[in-house]
# Entry
Amino acid sequence: MEGPAAAAAPAQGPGGPSLSRSASDAPAHRSSRATHDVLVIGCGIVGASCAWHLASRGLRVVVLEREAGPAMGSTGRSAAGVRVQFTSEANIRLSLHSLPVYRAFRERHGVDVGYRALGYLLLVPPERWEAHLQAVALQRELGAPVQVLTPAEAARRVPLETAGLAGATLGPWDGIIDPHLATMAWVGMARAAGAEFRFSHPVGTLERRAGLWRASPGGAGAVGPDGGARGVDVLR
# Structure
């Protein structure tokens, strides 16, 4: 459950600790009710980043995650490649927004998230070269630093057989990050900004009640009011 489902207006939910001691601690039952502006479902890298960006702007944020800790779904299983060499404008723009964040993460936030600018060298056969160059033109138009290389130039960078290649492109910003370090960095900063995290807290249903959205627990691992996951009222 690693994609955010965020709602942005006053919200109410049952109280409970934010698991500041350990990601695997289950929240204890309390009878008090806390108010939230935003609910984020899922604590992968996207959900954790959303939590910090929202909490740092003064919103009261609660994050619900069905697993026992952050980055235990697709984030933790990913190859964690980051690149600007895409063919769609949306993906290029997203990368141009996010890659500079990771490139400067240590300087901005004092945390190493494992960003390494290894560069992606894409090798392209003749039948795909024209379409590939059209994608490069879009990348450059949007501001992506992409280099076009001949097969011989590519071979000088990486030993390879040039037969059957029309050319290659290199994205010098492209590389990798550590998905666990990055997610935990967002989580730590979000908590410092006041966000609350509830792990082992699956969401089964979302329904509207009396002007609020209510997230109810459900699915494998769901537990009752004395054991952890409970319903959360969210947002108008």
